[in-house]
Design goal:
The protein has 202 residues and is of the alpha+beta class. It is built from one helix and 15 strands.
């Protein structure tokens, strides 16, 4: 009789422990799954603060807060951040009437600033030149020759929007604002409304 009760007790204990362990393992599994899902989400930053640099004709310079473009004798600019020279851009071959300069920054990440220099043509825009600054250091600089808008009729904020995702800068160009004289590269990604230029940064 005692042996029968002992066996009955052990069976009962076994069936009580199994569901408990199953619930524990299920909970542990869901926690791991949640961590993986969260870690795979990409962080996208939109450069939604767009401002024009102020031009000082007497000094041939552009300024926006602590960022300055100082004109040089070769027709280019020295770029300074908080009075620290970061780079020199040589525009000696450029024959256009002048430049417009814009700052793209993000509300979420103030460490990054993208400077867009617009080379003006006799009619509209000749090209764009992008300078990427990160933590008061130069991250990259490059020309964007196409596509172009007509700067005489279009604000740059209505034509170019910029975002950062997984260390890739994405320049988005509004198709409706592309100038008639601009030629569009087939290498650019496209949808019904926009063209996309992607640029990896360090």
């Amino acid at each position: 009789m005692h042996r029968f009760l002992k066996i009955f007790f052990l069976f009962g204990l076994f069936f009580w422990i199994c569901p408990y362990n199953g619930q524990f393992l299920e909970g542990e599994s869901s926690e791991v799954s949640g961590d993986i899902s969260y870690g795979s989400k990409s962080k996208e930053i939109s450069f939604d603060l767009i401002s024009a640099f102020t031009f000082n004709k007497a000094k041939n310079s552009f300024a926006h807060h602590t960022t300055k473009l100082m004109g040089t004798k070769d027709g280019g600019f020295d770029i300074h951040k908080k009075n620290k020279k970061l780079t020199h851009i040589d525009f000696s071959d450029f024959e256009g009437p002048g430049f417009s300069v814009y700052s793209y920054q993000s509300k979420k990440d103030k460490a990054l600033e993208i400077i867009i220099i617009e080379g003006q043509a006799d009619i509209g825009t000749a090209w764009y030149y992008a300078v990427v600054l990160k933590n008061e250091n130069l991250a990259d600089q490059f020309y964007i020759n196409e596509p172009r808008s007509n700067s005489e009729t279009t604000d740059i904020k209505d034509f170019i929007s910029i975002s950062l995702e997984n260390k890739t800068l994405v320049f988005k160009f509004n198709k409706e604002k592309i100038a008639g004289y601009s030629s569009v590269s087939e290498d650019l990604k496209s949808d019904n409304q926009y063209l996309y230029l992607e640029k990896k940064i360090k």
